[in-house]
């Protein structure tokens, strides 16, 4: 489409130079002698006048270039075609295009591939001459062409019947309509259009139609074949063959065909309750008012007829199909004036295939598949079945006949073999006595080849026996065929175990690839081969705790352990990082450990090892790659986020390249580092567990520092890695209690109460009226006299490592009462001295169970108190002659009731 110029860079096919070429004249000239003739522009004859043909390079060839050619009569070995191309509006700015030249109709040839020199909308002139050595021919005639790369805007599409106006009331099936395509540019020569319908989308094809003249509109007449959604898409085609933007109009075609419905003979699938000869209900409904009747027929000579419509334009017809299989019912509605509507086709299947029951889905090779078939057709005498092989096209049909019983039923037995591995279903049909075949019934099956599953242990080294066990899903295995290393000539038949499996032992004698395959057989078929393959090597095994593979080691000393596979290994040779091989004798058990080795640098390293036996035979070389990464240590997280102070706590540090030999420090806020004990490190180096004693640690954010082992390792610090919080306090769930006699001299005892968690230690303090009793810190306490009248309590302190000590106080006792009165022991009080007038009697207080603080003596004469006090003696007078004297000793002790004991009476002599 002629329009605005565009500049786009592209690669030129040959070396070009812009500007005025040698020998360029002021304007076009007629062809000189020896100049190329038969000039063609993009395959078209030379246009001697502007604008020439309109060309769209993108539509011409894969190179998307205008091709210029000319016929050459003769050309030397080094001849060149010298093309000049110029914008007719700029004759002084000429392009030079050089290319090889040969004799022939297109001996002078060039592709104008530079987009920036073939601008859209520009008319170009061109000519060509031959350059041969130092000579040049004259110029050819001048030809013209115009570059047109764009197709312009979309045309305008109108239709009074279908596109414009009220589409629901205009047009119908079979009603012709006119569609007018009007261009929006003046260089349109043709149109490309397509009618599309949702119901018959497969019939949508593109149509190309030429305009009567340049820039003329086009009128198309079209009648719809179906109803519902439709659209028309239209392109305008310009002189260069460019397509415009497309115009699309959607419209609806009014439905005039009757509708058809049947639940008995559904178009969505067969109803097995209905078959040949059984009438089913079909409902017809007219779609326009005035429907009087319907005419109907079934294809291929099936039944036909007419049916009157009811007042609502509907009819129900009972139709009994006369044959089985796919068939089409065609229905027209007829108006009261006799006008017939377009026909409606209704496709359905009449299914008289047998009822088949039995296994479906996966079936195992060699296992009989038993299917029961019951007839749905008349006079069934036999059944035919055949497998459908999904791997073959067309699918072969090899039918097997099974006679029916007298009642028309039969049992079909099919035994799949490996030849049936691609079968995806069975087809079963009945055959009546007159030879009529029913619709086939499909039973989906997939054949499981029962490939043996093979497991292996051992056999990795020469001389080491491999034990292989094979199992299969195929039942009834009667034998196994074992194939060693793919050689059918060494197959062995082996009897199965009781469970159908087989165990086979094989000892490889040489290194290299080995395989053992198994095929199971039962009475009907064999399975597909199942095999175990592995590589036997005599290369030694290499392990290293310090330099794991996979994993990463450090720039620190480490060793490698070699374990032999070669029988009789007596020594090793190893090389680290392609240095010279080092000899290393084997220990008695064939193993060896290298001396400690320290990597010189980080990165990937390699150790190669081979072993030798006593005869000097060398094993295969074992290669062991490992990484050393001094700068890869990171700490990404510490768990838990909060840790209680007061005891040894376990932290989990997450990161990369962590190792058990790392030193882990925890620095509390404002405190000194606490070095932890690494308990374990994961094999991948991504986590480490460490125990840290946080007894006495300050609360707040704590920092984790990893000091990696090995050279070149800088400490890795994670500030505020976790928070140290106060340890949880012990909690009393039941208060302490006091038991015992709450009296002076009495013993009271405590119970500690109940605590959570269970304490590991207790401390006690007895209190009197809330004041601590000095020294009273035992589990029992003897009440002194000084506490008389006071109330006792006890404070119990419970402790457990990792928890804050807590205290609980018992309930107070009653006031401390006086103690029990002292009582004399075995030596009772008595009166000593001679009971005669003039003499003095003395009271002996005796011995008491409590040492009294003091005694008081009550002397009585014939029961009458005559002296009371601390005096323990009594002077006998004449008035006392013949009377009885006794004394009561009162023992007094602070805090205790008084004790009393009365002596025997003595009589004063006359």
UniProtKB/TrEMBL annotation:
Which BP terms from GO are recorded? carbohydrate metabolic process
UniProt keyword Signal present: yes
**UniProt keyword annotation of Signal present:** yes
Among PROSITE patterns, the record links this protein to: FILAMIN_REPEAT, PROKAR_LIPOPROTEIN
According to the record, the signal peptide region is 1-31
Q: Which UniProt keywords apply?
A: Signal
Q: What is this protein called?
A: Ig-like domain (Group 3)
Origin species: Paractinoplanes atraurantiacus
